[in-house]
Amino acid sequence: TGERPPVFWVQGQGCTGCSVTLLNSTHPGIADVLLKIISLEFHPTVMAAEGEGAYDHMMRVAEKYKGKFIFAVEGAVPVAHDGKCCVVAEAKHHEVTMTELTKVLSANAAAVLAVGTCAAYGGIPAGKGNETGAMGVSAFLKKEGIPAPVINIPGCPPHPDWIVGTIGLGLQALATNTLGLLVKQGLDANGRPKAFYKNVHMNCPHLSEFEAGHMVKPMSDKDGCRFSIGCKGPRSACASSERKWNNGVNWCVNNATCIGCTSPSFPDGQSPFYVN
Asked: What is the C-alpha to C-alpha distance for residues 85 and 87, in angstroms, rounded to an integer?
């Protein structure tokens, strides 16, 4: 439409790695993303404002653009202890929890982006032994009965292209009133954009070696399939083999094994990551 839609990026239980990876976007560069494509109105890590003033600004813009803004969530949503495990703001002497803010913004957003595996499925914060009741955004909204359209962008962290590309898909869908179609047909069974989440194993350059039974022994072997030492590629999905990381320099399976970080069962269901 030529207008830059407001985007609110809120951080729950996470490590800020998804924000770091977004800043590494090169095509387009992050400056173009922030200054020409979207209007980033709130981001705890990169914005100059802070405290109650920043929170009040976000809520004012959210009210003005009700039903038209994008709500991006980084990190899991903890529900135990009345949500007090993750306080994201304070307003009028009231501690605003991640659960409270997620409910309010999701209910009024045009679309919700769950950025990173923690936001998509719970991830590491929801791993065995956690005391916070951490869960992914989709599961949380379902529990609360909020029918917001959610697009999962898992990865620990996601590739910057997956984030920026999904924002592009979302903006196009909003401009053409096809967001419902995108959510219905453009996402896989785990809520991930099909354009960026393809089976790792079937698109791996080592696929022919797997079919020939040529397996590596130590991880330092450059030739051979890594399934023998624990690679999770057959049950994982992403486009790392095509896009690679650090502007095309390398990707996970070149030097290690796929650990299945884009999967709903990460990390517990993908462990151990390496077998000897």
From this structure: 7
